[in-house]
């Protein structure tokens, strides 16, 4: 999908007040700032592309409930992601993340977070602030020795944590 095609798709989705956009496996290298014009968007599928980051304007997508960005090359998330107050599910499996921004704590509705196959060496501290979090996937990360204690704390708080294909107990 060329940049021109992507901009046309955003315009069309905006005009139709679309709640779902599927841009999986479209060869995208970036999401344009104009994506924030999709004010009614609840589901954004943009996995299996070549994204390395997200535009800060992503935080303006206040209706977004599910964001699927698996199997890209994302290395950092913008602080504005914390403004996604309606976000319930975020799939970041298979990226290159090593940390989450402190502002991520603003994702107060987040219930499911998939961080499988990234570069986390410990559980991001910001996750302990997410009271709605129910399921966390950490399989395939180079977790250090302190991660087991962090996982135990999350599990005791009612979060199902999956790592190395096993449920934390």
Q: Which sheet architecture does the biggest sheet show?
A: 8 strands, mixed
Distance between the termini: 44 Å
Q: Report the sheet-strand fraction.
A: 5-15%
Total number of beta strands: 8
C-alpha-based Rg, rounded: 16 Å
Element order, helices and strands? Answer: HEEEEEEHEE
Helix/strand class: alpha/beta
What global shape is seen?
A: globular
Strand order of the largest sheet: 1-2-3-4-5-6-7-8
Fill in the CATH topology.
Leucine-rich repeat, LRR (right-handed beta-alpha superhelix)
- What do the pLDDT scores average to? 94
User: CATH class, please?
Assistant: Alpha Beta
Question: What's the architecture in CATH terms?
Answer: Alpha-Beta Horseshoe
Describe the model.
This protein has helices spanning about 5-15, 145-155, and strands at about 20, 45, 65-70, 90, 110-115, 135, 160-165, 165. The protein has about 170 residues and is of the alpha/beta class. The protein has one domain (about 5-165): Leucine-rich repeat, LRR (right-handed beta-alpha superhelix) (Alpha-Beta Horseshoe), CATH 3.80.10.10. An eight-stranded mixed sheet has the order 1-2-3-4-5-6-7-8, with helices on one face. About 35% of the residues are buried.
